[in-house]
Design brief:
The chain is mainly beta. It has a single domain, classed as Porin (Beta Barrel). The chain contains one helix and nine strands; from the N terminus they run αβββββββββ. Strands 1, 2, 3, 4, 5, 6, 7, 8 and 9 form a nine-stranded antiparallel sheet that branches. Strand 3 and strand 4 form a beta hairpin. The protein starts with a helix and ends with a strand.
Length: 151
């Protein structure tokens, strides 16, 4: 399964040609870390987006991890010569389907590099998670990932 995801991502990168990634549209890719799996992002405005993932958590009990976040991006914090590097923060929720299913609040903080001349973004995030069900528990997630944006 993981080899198929990597192969699919590489094929998409080869065919990106002249399409330009913008802070708009819908992207799908991979997220690696805690959790690891498939991720997506949909831009809802010039600086807002919804992201999510269906992934596997390797912490404690191995479990299916589902999350969705509403993100706010700031394109002015740091400028790069090529592409764009917005930093973001947001609020979301997660379901972790293990023996005792957990439901919690996520507060993602990260950065996204939007590749110039290609429909790709690369991201890094750290996410404090406050589980509320079945009990209150604090956890820290972190991941890197890449997404392909469809024209």
């Amino acid at each position: 399964m993981n080899n198929r995801i990597v192969f699919f991502t590489l094929i998409m990168m080869l065919f990106c040609g002249t399409v330009v990634a913008e802070e708009s549209g819908f992207g799908v890719g991979v997220i690696l870390g805690e959790p690891t799996g498939i991720c997506c992002k949909f831009w809802t405005g010039s600086n807002t987006a919804i992201d999510g993932a269906a992934a596997w958590s390797f912490a404690d009990e191995n479990a299916l991890h589902l999350h969705a976040d509403y993100l706010f991006h700031n394109f002015d914090w740091y400028e790069v010569e090529k592409g764009k590097l917005p930093f973001y923060f947001g609020l979301g929720g997660r379901f972790k389907l293990e023996k005792d299913t957990k439901v919690g609040i996520r507060i993602p903080i990260g950065g996204t590099y939007i590749v110039e001349g290609a429909p790709l973004d690369i991201f890094l995030e750290i996410v404090p998670v406050l589980d509320l069900v079945p009990g209150t528990e604090f956890e820290l997630n972190g991941a890197v990932g890449i997404r392909y944006f469809f024209p």
